[in-house]
Write a structure and sequence with these properties.
There is one protein chain. This protein is about 35% helix and about 15% strand. The chain is globular. The chain is an alpha+beta fold. It starts with a strand and ends with a helix. It has a two-stranded antiparallel sheet with strand order 1-2. β1 and β2 form a beta hairpin. This is Transposase. Pfam families: rve. InterPro entries: Integrase_cat-core, RNaseH-like_sf, RNaseH_sf, Transposase_IS3/IS150/IS904. One of its GO terms (biological process) is DNA integration.
């Protein structure tokens, strides 16, 4: 499972699930969050530095 959370509101803005943790999940969750929230220029994305995030 890959989840993107808005740190300010603590709302889940994007997520994806799969049998294996792959970079595809991260991309799907990020795209969902981006399309749902339409962030303004300058948005910052923090990760836990997992291999899926460095691969995406």
């Amino acid at each position: 499972m890959s989840v993107f959370i808005d740190v300010y509101s603590r709302k889940i803005v994007g997520w994806a699930m799969g049998r294996r943790m792959q970079d595809k999940l991260v991309t799907e969750a990020f795209n969902q969050a981006y399309n749902r929230e339409k962030p303004k220029e300058g948005v910052i994305v923090h990760t836990d530095q997992g291999s899926q995030y460095t691969g995406a």
